[in-house]
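User: When convenient, might I ask for sequence and structure tokens for a protein?

AI:
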Amino acid sequence: MKFQTMQQVYIQSDVLNVEAPIGEIGYVVDIDRDSDRAQRYCIRVPSQKKWFWMPECDLCSAEEWLDVAASMAIEGALVERALDTKDEEGFRAAVQWRRGCR
């Protein structure tokens, strides 16, 4: 199992169309250990005040998501600064940095 109970998770997709709020943070409140069930994790989303049974492929840990979001923000700032100052070398460095992070 990838997630523990009470672990913060980020809902990144909704492949089974359970009307889960994509892009929201939730908490794992229950895990169904039956291997025949696709929707293993019961996720409580505080902003929606709802529970959703979701498969593992729809979720990522909140820590992973924060790392990705931070990298995207840094990348955007570097590219924007390079374009504003018309700094070709800075733009190339930002693109190189982007390739190194992914």
Remarks:
- Residues 63-101 form one domain.
- The beta strands are 8-11, 25-31, 41-45, 50-54, 59-61.
- Residues 82 and 89 are 8 Å apart (CA to CA).
